[in-house]
DNA sequence: TTACGCTATGTAATAGTATAACATTACAGT
DNA sequence: ACTGTAATGTTATACTATTACATAGCGTAA
């Protein structure tokens, strides 16, 4: 449920944080991002958190609440912005982002019925991805 | 997605933590629980976290990932155990627990299709409850 | 130009959340 | 009694996030 306008111009810090997340193969905690950007001059958590706040607001990054970590959005710029859902593999740590209009539609319908004014939703699945299942 | 057997017997610490959450009118952080149990002899966070782990496993307590807090389950004992979803009011902090078979069914169906072996799900809505909306 | 407002930044200190490690106790089953 | 398992107590530490305050850049209206 991002408020993403069109492609925003990123500041230097925002671009560095976004780049670190894009290069990562999975979610990173804010402190992991910090460690990867020390060579670029990052010194304090707040530099990361401030950039993350903006990137999340732009819809370029998602926060995974159940992991206290962040991932780059896997959708192309300007693409349809159903609120995202995530499947997190407890074995390999991989995250699959998906957007299912039926699911979010059902949640919106529930909110409507309950007169709950919806501003955001968190949908995170836990389990094992196909590759990490033995059988 | 609790593994709740039938009504488990709680240890003293578990019962105290559960009681604190039941008495609370909303979610409590682990440290808030700790503060409320100091008179009962609680001294360290681990006493709370260990009890919470069990209570969550029993299905008697839910963890709200987007709040880093815990609430007592609002269902009667032994009641049907669809994975719970939550609507969290950003104004009053109130939490409404609901279970919608269509929503969880759709998520299970997505997992099935993606060969994702599901062990748990987090569904949390944010916004304003009916009472907190002005107009 | 200067003055103002707004956003972004740098830095240090602190608050809040969660776990590791180790010692001890309780109790059921053999 | 011996063993295995679960629960507990306690200290220390790790991890996550924000407050507070100082500084710098930039656009715009006077």
List keywords for this structure.
homodimer, alpha+beta, Arc Repressor Mutant, subunit A, Dna Ligase, domain 1, 5 strands, disordered N terminus, DNA-binding
Please give the count of helices of chain A: 4
Based on Cα principal axes, name the global outline of chain A. globular
Q: What is the strand tally of chain A?
A: 5
Per CATH, the architecture of the largest domain in chain A is: Orthogonal Bundle
Q: Helical amount among residues of chain A, as a percent range?
A: 25-40%
Strand order of the largest sheet of chain A: 4-3-5
- Uncertain residue ranges of chain A: 1-5
What would you report as the Rg of chain A, rounded to the nearest angstrom?
16 Å
Summary of the model, kept short:
2 copies of one chain form a homodimer. Chain A is an alpha+beta fold and 135 residues long. Chain A has helices spanning 12-23, 30-36, 45-58, 101-113; strands at 61-64, 69-72, 85-89, 95-98, 117-128.
Can you walk through the features of this model?
2 copies of one chain form a homodimer. By secondary structure, chain A is α+β, with helices and mostly antiparallel strands. Chain A has a 3-stranded mixed β-sheet, covered by helices on one side. Chain A has a two-stranded antiparallel sheet with strand order 1-2. In chain A, helix 1 crosses helix 3 (45-58). Chain A is built from 4 helices and 5 strands. The model of chain A is unreliable at 1-5 (pLDDT under 50). The first copy, chain A, folds into 2 domains: 1-74, Arc Repressor Mutant, subunit A (Orthogonal Bundle), CATH 1.10.10; 80-135, 2-Layer Sandwich (Dna Ligase, domain 1), CATH 3.30.1490. Chains A and B meet through strand 3, helix 4 and strand 5 of A and strand 3, helix 4 and strand 5 of B. Chain A binds a DNA duplex (30 and 30 nucleotides) through helix 1 and helix 3.
């Amino acid at each position: 449920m991002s408020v993403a306008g069109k492609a925003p111009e990123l500041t230097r810090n925002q671009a560095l944080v976004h780049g670190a997340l894009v290069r990562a193969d999975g979610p990173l905690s804010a402190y992991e991002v910090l460690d990867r950007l020390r060579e670029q001059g990052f010194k304090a958590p707040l530099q990361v958190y401030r950039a993350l706040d903006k990137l999340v607001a732009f819809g370029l990054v998602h926060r995974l609440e159940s992991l206290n970590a962040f991932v780059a959005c896997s959708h192309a710029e300007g693409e349809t912005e159903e609120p995202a859902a995530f499947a997190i593999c407890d074995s390999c740590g991989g995250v699959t982002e998906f957007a299912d209009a039926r699911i979010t539609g059902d949640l919106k319908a529930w909110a409507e019925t309950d007169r709950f004014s919806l501003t955001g939703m968190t949908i995170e699945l836990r389990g094992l991805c196909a590759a990490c299942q033995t059988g």
